[in-house]
Write a structure and sequence with these properties.
The chain has helices at residues 63-75, 110-118, 127-141, 161-164, 170-176, 185-199, 251-261, 265-274, 277-282, 288-296, 300-324, 334-339, 341-349, 360-365, 390-402; strands at 2-8, 12-19, 24-32, 45-49, 52-56, 90-95, 106-107, 147-151, 207-213, 217-223, 226-230, 329-333, 372-373, 382-385. It has 405 residues and is of the alpha/beta class.
Amino acid sequence: MKILVINCGSSSLKFQLINMDDESLICKGTIERIGLPISGGEQNVIYKVGDEAFLSDKEIPNHTEAFNTVKWLITESDHAVLQSFDEVDAIGHRFVQGGDKYTKSVLINDEVIEDVKKLIPLAPLHNPANIAGYEACLDVVGPNVPQVAVFDTAFHSTMPPMAYMYAVPYEYFEKYGIRRYGFHGTSHKFVSQRCADIMKEDISKLKIITCHLGNGASIAAVKYGKVFDTSMGFTPLDGFMMGTRSGGVDPSVVTFIQQKLGLSPKEVEDILNKESGVSAISGISSDDRDINKAQAEGNERAILAHEMQAFQIAKYIGGYVAAMNGVDAIVFTGGIGENGFWLRAKVCSYLGYLGVSINQAVNQKAVKGVEAELTNPTDKVRVFVLATNEELMIARDTKEIVEKL
C-alpha cells in the first residue's frame, strides 16, 4: 500500500510518499510561497528521491496548483517514482484542531470538513490551510482516492478534566470550548510508542515524558499509553518559552501591555506569538543554531535564553513526574530535542533527584535522525533521544482506516 502524506500551511505544502508494505520513504518534498510572488533565483519547489534533491522555481497561485505540482513530480517528471497516480492508495492529511469531537483519525467527508470549519476560531492559522490541502487533493484526483484526517489534538484527548480544564467561568468551556487541547500529538504518539518498543515493554505499563523541542515546543505526560497532561493549551502559545512564543505568562502581563501601549488584542497576540521567546530574550534569533553560536562566544543574553528554556523544561518534567507519581523514561525529540546536546544536558542536570545521570559523550554525538540512549538500560529512569516521524504516524493511521473500508 502506498500512502501520500500531506501537511499544508497557509503558503506551503509538504508531502511524503510512503510504501507501507515496509514503511519505506519513496520520495518527499516541499512547495513554498503558495499564493506569493517568486523573486529572482528563488527556488520554492524542493523534491527529494533517495539522496538526490531537485530544486526549481515556479509560481504557485493556490493549493490546487501546488497539489497538481506534487502529482506531476511523482508521476510525470524526469524523476517520477510512479507510473500513474492510481498507484496511490490513500492520502493522509495533518489536521491541527479536532476539538472535543475528533479524538481519533477519521475518513474525511463533507461532515468532517464542516466540523473542522467550525473549529477555525480555535486554530485560525492552521485549520483553513488543512482544509485547503484536502480540497486541493479532491480537485485534482477526485473522490475515489480515500483521504484521512489525522488530528494533532487527538492523542491528547485522553486527558482527564482536572488536567484540561481552566479555572475560568464554566460557561466559557460550555459555550466556547475554552480548555486545554494540546498539540504535536502525532509526534508525542510516535516517540512514546517508539520508546516503549526500544525498552521492550508494553506501553500500557510505562510512564513516559516526551519533550518535542523545536521552534514550537511541547511536553506530554504519557501514562500507560495515554496522555495525562501536556504543556500546550487552548492554543500552541501555552507552555514554556519557544523560538518566538512566550509560553505561559501571568495573564495580567497581557492586559498591562495592552493598556500601557494602547494595543489591540490582535497586536498583543502577535507580540506573544511572533516577537517573544528565545528570540526576544537573546536579541539574536529564534534559530537554536544561532543561539548556540552566540552562547559559545559568551553572549550573556543568549546564555540567559538557554538557561531560562532549560529551567522551564525541567520544571514541566518535574511537575509531570509528580502528576504521574513517577516516570520510567524521558524522551527528547524534534529539531532542538534531537540536536541540542547542551539543552539536553542542562535539563538533565536538574533531574539528579530521579537518579538521572547521562553519558555526556553519547549526548554530544546524538544528532538529528540518530537514536540514542543517554542513560544505562539498568537505570531506574532512562533518557532517550529519538527521531520523530509524524508523517509515518499519519500514514499508519491512514492505512489502518483505509484497510477497513
